[in-house]
Amino acid sequence: MNRKKLKFIIIIGSFIILLGLIYLGPACYYTDLSGSGKHKFIFGTVINGQYCTGLNVDEANRILTDAYEYHTAVIHTDEEDYLLDTKSAGLNVDYTAGLNEIMNRQNPFVWMLYINKNSEYEISPTYLLDKDMFADSYGKLEVGSKTQGSQNVVIRLTDEGYALEDNKHAVLKTEPFYVYVRNELLKGAFDISADETFYDTPSYTADEKELVDLFDKINRIQNKKVTYSFGRDIVKISPYDWACLLCETDTPVTMFNTPDMVRKYIDFDIDEDRAVEYIDDLLLMYNTLNNKYFKTHSGKWVYVKKGNYGNKINITKEEEWFKEFVNSDSERSTRTCEYLIEAAKYKEKNDFGDTFIEISLDEQHLWYYVDGEIFVDTPITSGSLYHGGTDPRVVFVYTKIPNKWLTGPTWHSFVKYWVAIQGAIGIHDASWRSKYGGDEYRYNGSHGCINTPLEAMEKIYANVEIGTPVIVYSLEKNGVTDIPKGEE
Predict the structure, then answer these.
(1) Which of 141, 170, 191 is the C-terminal boundary of a domain?
(2) Is 0.85 topped by the overall pTM?
(3) pLDDT value at position 109?
(4) Are 146 and 80 in contact (CB under 8 A)?
(5) 92 belongs to a structural domain
(6) Is 270 in contact with 323 (CB distance < 8 Å)?
(7) CATH number of the domain that 456 lies in?
């Protein structure tokens, strides 16, 4: 064999040996030659986003378990939802089974075939649970504790009348549900619900059933709808008011827990005297004739019981209507009261509207409001104490006369503007007077009329209409400290 040929053979042989080493090197690297069974994942292996090439199963498992993101388990029951921190509850993960499955599918002796191959894998872990840690964390949630509470039925008074408080509810079977939650976590379920199979259905005693039936009777009455229309004001009888009417005590019983209590204190045929007392109280603020609450310019309240302006409701008629309605089968009614006398303006509590005259006898002052705004603001002089002063009253302008002579037992006086408000009492100018307001009325007042400066009287006379309400009051005589009902 010549030298050239030998040299060629040696080169070819060396190349073959080199290729063999290149092939066998990685194959031997990925293959466990020690017999321990710890093969390595071959080139390009990515598992759950983690690069695992050259790692054995134990090493890859540590990386995957370190990268695992623990979930918060949500446990749903009828009472509420609970959140369980699974890591604190002793949940652990292990990927060994999935890793072994991938390892068994890989052949290290054909590693070169994986160079351009996508070797990304997604595997799920096996879940393990520390028994003691789970029991401690789950116990702190007190799952089902509320369903173990009171199991009674009562009728309780609320702001909306009597309400049935039915505490009968299905009770969670806590032990079976505890086992179920634990098993679901071991399956990798983190949204866990208690269905009807985990509840015991409640049972009612004979008394409880009767209490429910009695509440239905109460509810039918307290849900009667009565709407009173007082002009622009709408007043509804509330369920609470009906509850008070049903109860025979001075103050309504706050709770019934037995049928005997209901039968003792509830009168399903409402007593007529209670009905009359209730409706009289309801209508009082709208029965304004000689019954007027008025908020003065200073914000203080007065109560004036005299005068000829206001609404007078036919109380007897309304009492009869209400007595008939309360114990009838009627479920609803809209009522407009019958009136014996009606105010010129409105049927509301504010029966004089936004245009009226306010006269304070204490302050010796007059305000004339037009559409809610002060149009005239002036001092006045009212009746002298010697002549008995001027009586507080709620009246109205019933006539206007220019250039009038006022004649009495000892006087004959000319006025340019006469605005009569009741009988011989009026608002007018007084040319003989040079001073108004203050204590002038005490020793030099009128015979009962409201003496007003000429300039102010000109504006009043030119603008005031017949029927305009006039509120004359004295805080000393008519002032009240309690805010009227419905004005809070």
Answers:
(1) 141
(2) no
(3) 53
(4) yes
(5) yes
(6) no
(7) 2.40.440.10
